Amino acid sequence: MTNRTSVTEFLLLEFSDVRELQLFHLVVFLGIFLVALAGNLLFITTVALSHHLHTPMYFFLMNLSIIDLGSISVTVPKSMINSLLNTKSISYTGCVAQVFLFIFFIEVDFAFLTIMAYDRYVAICQPLHCERVMNGRACVQMAAGAWISGVLNSVLHTGNTFALTFCGNNTVDQFFCEIPQLLKLACSDSYLGEVGVIVFNACLFLSCFLLIIASYVQIFTMVLRIPTEWDRHKAFSTCLPHLIVVSLFICPGVFAYLKPTSISTSRLDLVVAVLYSVVPPMMNPIIYSMRNKEIKGALRKLTG
To answer: Which of 107, 115, 215, 285 could be stapled to 121 by a disulfide with Cβ–Cβ 3.0 to 4.6 Å?
Structure first.
């Protein structure tokens, strides 16, 4: 049995063995990364410099853009470098850092999506109490709680994962160090502790997801009672982007971490990982800005 301390590096999954396709992957990922970088930085700058956007909703959206910048920067640049240099390796320390940072951003992301659902619920269903419930201090406290919970969860996951004994094989069937793929390299039943942590977190995620669903059931019930079509449309337009973002993030993410091993294949895992780790950071600023007149107006003022 090979002791875990003898593992000095891991080998990540290549998108292709063909050099031309590796370079194509590099170009595609570079394009996605630059779009995500530009979109999120522009969104953060627009909100920060536009005083009329200093509201709870845009405060949380700005945090979400910061998270998106962080999460895509953890996985995509290393994958691009490997494609450029025609290599698959990542150091043991680099893998630890990737797991810690990626889980951190994923946990904080979901916490903010839950908070934003609550913010929409208060704004639409309890408008008279909105300023009192979602005041500046409350927003900062909720944001701080989300970031701190991300750190604690990430420490727990990373510590459990790299306390494992790896049995010689150091090939990770993913383009970044993903926990489910690392668990496949563990010896015997030593991975069961981390599986327990994943199941516990899955229950927390499910609770948050049910809270999001309950919030939107209340929201849609209230919106359908609004007499004028324009007001109904305005209320729906503030909720729809959030629902799309939640769906983009949760569905493939839950599938990646809770799918049965019997249906796990390298290519399927790769596609699912791209869907939940690469696509949302690129699409989120586009989704939130596409039909948002306030953001469009603020952008015109800043660029005009």
So the answer is: 215
Q: Which two tokens stand for residue 30?
A: 């570079």
Residue type, 187: C
Selection from 26, 123, 114 nearest residue 77 by Cα:
26
- Report how far apart, in Å, the C-alpha atoms of 1 and of each of 9, 147, 168, 180 are: 17, 39, 7, 21
The answer to whether the beta carbons of residues 107 and 150 sit under 8 Å apart is yes
For residue 177, what is the DSSP state?
Answer: -
Q: Give per-residue pLDDT as tens, 75-111.
A: 999 999 999 999 999 999 999 999 999 999 999 999 9
Say if residues 78 and 93 touch (Cβ distance below 8 Å): no
Mean pLDDT of 141-168: 89
Mean of the per-residue pLDDT values of the chain: 85
Copy the structure tokens of residue 137: 């201090």
Q: Looking at residue 136, what DSSP letter applies?
A: H
Strand partners, 89: 11
Neighbours of 271 (CB within 10 A): 12
- For tokens 């996985």, the residue is 75
| Cβ-Cβ contacts under 8 Å for 113 (sequence gap 6 or more) | 64, 208, 212, 242, 245, 246, 249
Q: Which amino acid type is present at position 255?
A: F
Q: Per mean pLDDT, which range of 31-45, 212-226, 243-257 is the poorest?
A: 243-257
Please name the helix (run of DSSP H) or strand (run of DSSP E) that holds residue 89, with its range, or none: strand 89-91
- Reference 253, options 290, 198, 186, 195; nearest CA is 198
* Residue 202 identity: A
pLDDT digits 0-9 by tens, 283-301: 888 888 876 788 888 888 8
